[in-house]
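Weekly sync notes, structure subgroup
Attendees: PM, AL, DS (notes)

Item 1: joint prediction request from the bench team. They want all two components modeled as one assembly rather than separately. Inputs as received:
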Amino acid sequence: MRYFMMLIAALLALPAQAAQAALNVLTTVPEWAALAQEIGGDRIRVASVTTALQDPHRIEARPSLIARARNADLLIATGAELEAGWLPVVQREAGNARIQAGQPGYFEAAAHVRMLEIPAQLDRADGDVHASGNPHINTDPRVYLQVGAALAARLAQLEPANAAAYQAGYTAFAARWRANLARWEQRAAALRGQPVVVQHKSFSYLLDWLGLKEVATLEPKPGVEASAAHLSRVLQQVRGQRPRWVLRAVWESSRATDWFAANSGTPAVVLPFTVGGSDAAKDLTSLFDDTLARLLAVK
Amino acid sequence: MNRISVSMLAACGVLASFPAAAADAELQALREEIAQMRKSYEQRIDALEQRLAQAETGRAQAPSAAPAAGAAGFNPEIGLNLQGALTSTRLDPASWTLQGFVPPGAPDEVGPPRRRGFTAQETELTLAANVDPNFRGYLNLALTPDNTVELEEAYFQTLGLGAGFTLKGGRFLSGIGYNNERHPHTWDFADAPLAYTAFFGNKLTAEGLQLRWLAPTETWFELGLEAGRDDGFPGGARNKGGSALGAAFARTGGDLGIAHTWRAGLSYVATDPGARAYDGIDAAGLNTSVAFAGRSRTAGADFVWKWAPNGNPTERNFKLQAEYFRRNETGSLSCAERDASGACGGAAGLADSYRSSQSGYYLQGVWQFMPRWRLGYRHDRLDSGTTRLGPALVATDLPQLAAWQPLRNTVMLDYASSEFARLRLQFARDNSRGPGLVDQQVWLQYVMSMGAHGAHKF
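Output from the run, pasted for the record:
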């Protein structure tokens, strides 16, 4: 009996010890994992539950996700209903009070960002619309400064002993990031005003940052795949505007983009979308380096 | 660059204004002055840079204030699922029975076809909201085509019990098996697997408490215990305080690479029905009334495997699902006449011991071969075993219990115009009624989901 009690005590102590070693941070998508790593360094243990090759709207609440959420101290989500189809189940099934909505252990990036494309009316006849606006905020690099500041504050709140380190981590990141922004904006200055066709509204924030002009979307409605007839109409409509690229994210189906590229002569460009979306996009900096390189490669 | 040139310029200016033969003290003062000027310039430039950066980011990215909602902001999530079908069957649906098995309660809309032609199946209305930071409430009402409202689920669930524990209370779909907790609108076929029909009357609903514990391990491992009333099949009519239905389940699951995910579980259901009655017909066609009292124990195993290239199911995916159940029942069976038919020894009736061991499984695969389109096949098989009746009971009084192994094969093709709308065509060949009675069933079904659509489980 005594050995049994000791075993139970040891088992109960195990997760507690693991938790003390480092703050356990779980993110829904890779970009927030990369950002948390930039700020927290080796003070936190961070992992993303999805990869860049997965459609962030269509993730399944797999057993492994629930098991990882069980032990998380902080759950970072994009918010704006991007994860509405699976994250609530993960939170409810995890039996983890820390990561429930409203707790300090739950962080939504979109709450700290100016949202684009907030719909004036909510009707599913308009497709898969998000009431809070377009959730693909991660394609604008400026967003990482706001989200990073809020995230550093949240990490400090969760672990006051390391508050100064998190703040310093953010300050250093922000300095590097501002230098990157200046460099990117200089490189991309020539792209301003260029016409572009996108497959899904995945890049609205990128377009907003670079000042690109979206002349058409291949999807007739968000989340609704384009038919051949619709693609032909889009083709006729943009013919005179000579778009420079037709863009899709790496996780989107290639069908519509390839058809449009073949029939219009507009070069198709696959963008990494997030960290890990291409071989070159290893972290946040190389993500935007690669994104710009792919855009600039098309003359 | 600016910073260096400004301080250099300042330094040159200061130097030039002094004679070459300056004393050491003067030199020192000069150095201090330069250092001070440099510091002051650097500070001012820093401040300016910071203001510039703030203005830049502030202009582009001022966070939008969350829309302040009044009382309407506290509205619960409301969802509505419409389901309906056009069914065609070779045999009369009213004659459907599971030969060899006691009838699993009254037929409902999610089992084998109840009627031919157009039918509105169950319309599900769901309401859910967080009650406070500790609890969440959930309600699911099924509106049936018979113009009745069924309370499918009405429960509270804890949000932050911690240590991996979750407590659920009220009426809820039991956590046993894989398919049981899923609502019909998320099923891959228009009707329930035969094993669920035979052993749980299509689904096991618990009215009581459920406690689940999720282990703090990397591999998902969950244990669950349930206790509650047992008014529904396979329980029935026991007037007892405390818990009458007990259920337990253990399940685990994980990933193999990014493309493969699996889940496996074991379940156990124990109930002791006091008088589980059904209306029967004897071999001569006379009406009988039959009731079972005793122990009912069901054990089950379930397995699910899903594949999606790169873990992205949008384009193509495959799902394999299999469940097995075995039910052992021992107790007494009584048989009496119904409607003064004179069967089963008339009004006095007959009663003796009853013992059965019955099993069943289904195996199904659903393949999304291109976006929106899925093809599925399901194989259902049941084995009634041989029911052993005491000598006072006569087999011809109970033809329903004569041994049989029902078999059903089903294929389906469905098309989803979006995540919220699905149309399904389904064919089944079903010999549940007994030897030589083969039914062919055709379903054309629609499933439409509106409003707040709750996230689905794996």
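Discussion: Chain A is about 45% helix and 10% strand.
Action: AL to compare against the crosslinking data before next sync.
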